[in-house]
Structures are given as structure tokens and as C-alpha cells.
């Protein structure tokens, strides 16, 4: 497939752009393979560069010979374009609609594969936040951990990085066996080492205990080795007890107390997927309501968005307090360990570690806890609140995290 096949009208003159809090701009609209570009006719400055993938929905309206397009974006911007000519307007809308929804089978056509910076690169981003860099910090404090390259070919766990930090006493063979006992093979790994007392935060996915209460001695050995001899810890399950029991009936479940006696399980439910996206959609609608302050406050509260922020921050505070004040290690997981788990471990580190609150440290945190940890950005962000064609895999997990960071 070539971009030229998807772009019927690459250029339209005399287009007017309307944006909130900005005066209208008349100029030339160009449709490229990755961007919608509008350039002003007055001073030829570029007024708009809109990535197609940022477009969530397009609304069309025609009055006489002029077409009106309303572009609703994933970053919550709403842009309006007055396009002269019905045919040109339809062609632009259809092209952007197709280009904004290129599927995984056309992934090589997306913008990151074509981007060429016009400025000098100060460092190589691929090597800026390696696991060994993080491990060097831990190694200066303790000798109880090591880097394992058991997943270097991504055959053990496709959503983990090639290198992970695990207890020094645990062999790679033990890690392989433990991965088979965890959903999506996401076995427990170190995510944070607290320098003050040596306690740690770990993350993983749910154990595959099932209705028969299966066990895995290698998993038990791995989890206990992370905590140390004679110490106690907490397992923070981001599901409600009811959801955890339903998961058990489907082959998942929780860690049985009989096999993990040093650990106390705490359920701290966090909404995800469809519930979270519906909540954000209602919240965005409330923000667009300028009728009255009382109505806005009522709609904001009923959206449930701020309740989600509150629940997530409370869970992160429980983790941080357990590590710093109670001197207990914490293992965090939900079902898959790719959404609420990453939210909690990331926020807990921001609370505990001043370095994570610096620009460089925050970049490292996002790289480590979201990108390398396997958060499925492509499926979670395929559509957002304005789209009427959403799937169950879509969720604003990262947006919730960013809102929590702003609250902190």
C-alpha cells in the first residue's frame, strides 16, 4: 500500500481553521502521509501540524458549496475546518479517517518509521535508559541482586525487556518455571529498591492457581527470595476480591496464604479498560459544559474520573508507606500486570524517590515502567473518548497516570 492511494486530494486552498482561544486562520491545507498541515496565506508560517494518529473522530457538515469538518483529537483538542468544495472536503475527511486508523498490519507505514530529525541528536535514545544503568545504582547499595538475560530472545515473556533484575540466588531455570505459573508469563521482577531500608517493590501478573489451587515452588522461591529471610511483605492486588475469584474460575487467581505465608494480601480495586474510558468520556463532556458551575461540579463528580484518581493515589500511597514506614517489601499485580500494576508501581516510585521527580528521572521511569514493562500503547490508545467505534482493549491508562502525577 502506498500513501498516494489513500490521498485523493493532497492540497486545498482557501481553507479556514478555527481553534478555541485563537483567531481564525485562512491558508492552504495539505494532506501528507502522516500529517494534516495548514499554512497561513499571509505570512506563510505553519499554523498547524496535526498527526493523523491524533485524530479520534471526524464530523462532516455541508452548507451549500462549503464543507465543514470538525476534528476531535485524542489530546482533547477540537479543531474546525471550513473547506471550499464538497468533493475536496469529502476527500480530505476520508483520507484522514483512513490514515488515522492504520492497523497493526500497516505498522511500518506509521510516523516513527519515517521520522528524520532536522536537529542534532544529543544522545542515542535507544541506549539512554538501559537496565544496566538502573542496576548500577542498586549494585552500589547491595549485592543481593543480578541482571538476568533469560529473556534476551523474548521467548520467555514477549512483553518483558531482554534483561530484568532478579535476586542473585535465583537461577534462570527457576525464572523460566516461574514464568509458566504467571499470566502472560510475566514473572515477578524488581522495579524499585529502597535505599533507606533495603525493601523493594516488585511487579508481575496474576498466578495461574485456578480452581484446583495449583502451586509452583519456583515461583514461591522467587517471591520469597525478593523479600529476604524472616521478613514479611504485602501483596497489593489491584482487583476486588470478587474479580479475583472470577479470574480464579477462569484459570487465574491469587497467591494462596498456605504457600506464601510471609505475605499478606491486600485488595485495592482500581478501575480499568471500558469503565475507565467511559469515565473519561463523561469527564470530557462535563468540561465542555459551560452552562453553570453547579451543573459542571455535579457532572464532574458523577463522571467518576476524580474517584479513579483518588483510588489510584491511595493505592500508591499504601505501597509507599509499606516500604518506607512499615519496612515491608511489596508485590503488586492485577490480572495482566500491564495497566493498573504499572500505574501503582510508577506512582509509588515518584512518592518515594526524589530522582523520579526530576525531568531525567521521570523520563527513565516512563521508559522503565511503561515502555520496557510492556504497556500495550498501540491497543490502549487506538481510539479515545470521541470515537464511537471503540474496542474493549482501549483504555486511558497512561492518561490516568499523568493526571495522578499532576495531582502529586
Write the layout of secondary structure elements.
Blueprint: H1 3-6, E1 11-18, E2 25-31, E3 35-40, E4 46-51, E5 55-63, E6 66-73, E7 78-84, H2 86-99, H3 131-139, E8 145-148, E9 164-167, H4 172-179, E10 189-193, E11 200-203, H5 217-227, E12 233-237, H6 241-249, E13 263-267, H7 274-287, H8 293-303, H9 305-324, E14 329-333, H10 340-352, H11 359-371, H12 377-380, H13 397-407
Parallel strand pairs: 11-14, 12-13, 12-14
Antiparallel strand pairs: 1-2, 1-7, 2-3, 3-4, 5-6, 6-7, 8-9, 10-11
Helix pairs in contact: 4-5, 7-8, 9-10, 9-13, 10-11, 10-13
Provide a concise account of the structure shown.
With 408 residues, this protein is α+β, with helices and mostly antiparallel strands.
Explain the overall architecture:
The protein is an alpha+beta fold and 408 residues long. The chain has 13 helices and 14 strands. The protein has helices at 3-6, 86-99, 131-139, 172-179, 217-227, 241-249, 274-287, 293-303, 305-324, 340-352, 359-371, 377-380, 397-407; strands at residues 11-18, 25-31, 35-40, 46-51, 55-63, 66-73, 78-84, 145-148, 164-167, 189-193, 200-203, 233-237, 263-267, 329-333. The strands form three sheets. It has a seven-stranded antiparallel beta sheet, with helices on one face. Helix 9 packs across helix 10 and helix 10 (340-352) runs parallel beside helix 13 (397-407). It is elongated. The model has no long low-confidence stretch (mean pLDDT 92).
Amino acid at each position: 500500500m502506498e500513501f498516494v492511494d489513500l490521498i485523493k486530494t493532497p492540497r486545498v486552498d482557501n481553507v479556514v481553521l478555527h481553534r478555541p482561544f485563537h483567531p481564525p486562520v485562512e491558508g492552504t491545507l495539505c494532506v501528507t502521509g502522516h500529517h494534516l498541515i495548514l499554512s497561513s496565506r499571509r505570512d506563510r508560517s505553519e499554523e498547524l501540524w496535526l498527526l493523523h494518529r491524533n485524530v479520534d473522530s471526524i464530523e462532516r457538515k455541508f452548507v451549500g458549496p462549503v464543507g465543514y469538518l470538525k476534528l476531535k483529537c485524542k489530546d482533547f483538542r477540537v479543531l474546525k475546518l471550513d473547506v471550499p468544495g464538497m468533493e475536496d472536503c469529502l476527500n480530505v475527511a476520508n483520507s484522514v479517517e483512513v490514515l488515522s486508523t492504520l492497523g497493526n498490519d500497516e505498522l511500518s507505514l506509521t510516523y516513527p518509521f519515517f521520522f528524520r530529525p532536522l536537529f542534532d541528536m544529543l544522545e542515542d535514545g535507544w541506549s539512554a535508559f538501559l537496565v544496566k544503568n538502573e542496576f548500577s545504582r542498586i549494585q552500589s547499595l547491595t549485592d543481593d541482586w543480578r541482571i538476568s538475560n533469560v529473556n534476551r530472545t523474548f521467548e520467555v515473556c514477549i512483553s518483558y525487556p531482554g534483561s530484568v533484575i532478579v535476586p542473585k540466588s535465583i537461577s534462570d531455570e527457576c525464572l523460566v518455571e516461574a514464568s509458566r505459573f504467571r499470566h502472560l508469563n510475566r514473572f515477578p521482577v524488581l522495579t524499585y529498591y529502597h535505599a533507606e531500608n533495603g525493601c523493594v517493590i516488585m511487579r508481575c501478573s496474576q498466578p495461574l492457581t485456578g480452581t484446583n489451587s495449583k502451586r509452583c515452588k519456583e515461583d514461591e522461591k522467587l517471591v520469597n527470595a525478593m523479600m529476604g529471610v524472616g521478613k514479611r511483605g504485602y501483596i497489593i492486588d489491584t482487583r476486588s476480591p470478587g474479580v479475583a475469584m472470577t479470574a480464579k474460575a477462569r484459570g487465574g487467581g491469587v497467591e494462596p496464604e498456605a504457600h506464601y505465608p510471609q505475605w499478606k494480601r491486600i485488595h485495592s480495586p482500581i478501575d480499568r479498560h471500558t469503565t475507565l474510558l467511559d469515565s473519561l468520556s463523561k469527564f470530557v463532556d462535563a468540561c465542555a459544559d459551560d452552562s453553570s458551575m453547579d451543573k459542571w461540579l455535579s457532572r464532574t463528580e458523577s463522571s467518576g474520573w476524580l474517584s479513579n484518581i483518588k483510588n489510584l493515589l491511595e493505592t500508591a500511597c499504601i505501597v509507599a508507606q509499606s516500604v518506607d514506614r512499615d519496612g515491608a517489601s511489596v508485590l503488586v499485580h492485577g490480572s495482566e500486570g500491564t495497566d493498573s500494576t504499572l500505574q501503582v508501581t510508577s506512582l509509588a516510585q515518584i512518592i518515594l524517590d526524589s530522582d523520579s521527580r526530576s525531568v531525567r528521572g521521570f523520563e527513565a521511569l516512563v521508559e522503565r515502567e511503561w515502555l520496557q514493562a510492556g504497556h500495550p500503547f498501540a491497543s490502549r490508545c487506538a481510539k479515545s473518548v470521541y470515537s464511537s467505534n471503540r474496542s474493549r482493549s482501549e483504555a486511558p491508562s497512561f492518561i490516568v497516570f499523568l493526571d495522578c502525577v499532576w495531582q502529586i
